[in-house]
Fold:
Amino acid sequence: MSWIDNRIEDGVIITSLDWAINWARTSSLWPVTFGLACCAIEMMATGASRFDIDRFGAGAFRPTPRQADLMIVAGTVTYKMASRLKRLYNQMPDPKYVMAMGACTVGGGPYFKHGYHVVKGVDLVVPVDVYIPGCPPRPESLLEGLMRLQDKIRHQTRAKDKVALANRDKLAPLTV
Structure:
């Protein structure tokens, strides 16, 4: 007989803290809407009843970045909009995630070569977690990207990385 027998009541669940926090984060992603072009129509269709993004826990599109933890950037990002995108990203609470939806968002789209006003990929402005290619990508692609983001969140840990702690003095300072 071990020391734990008869010490835990019925109905008590024992799990790791990482698992419980990751489960809560994957089940309640709240995206902020940042639609710039035709990809935003497909993003809106994903929220409709036919595709039902609510079953993944991400149906509550937030009108303000202060209530959101996922930014879905859908459409062509111009240099004029890049500063606004960065401002909205900075207003989001941590942890925050970004999905780049569409060919124009991912790499500049058809404006890549001759469009002087288009950012050649939103990852130059904010860090991107999931890329969704297509022009415009179907709502199924957005749901697939959401599932991949949930997989990424499920495998996060709050433990400190021993290698990063050992090498923290060797890292170059950031230039701002």
Remarks:
- The beta strands are 31-35, 70-74, 97-101, 130-132.
- Confidence is low (pLDDT under 50) at residues 168-176.
- The longest strand covers residues 31-35.
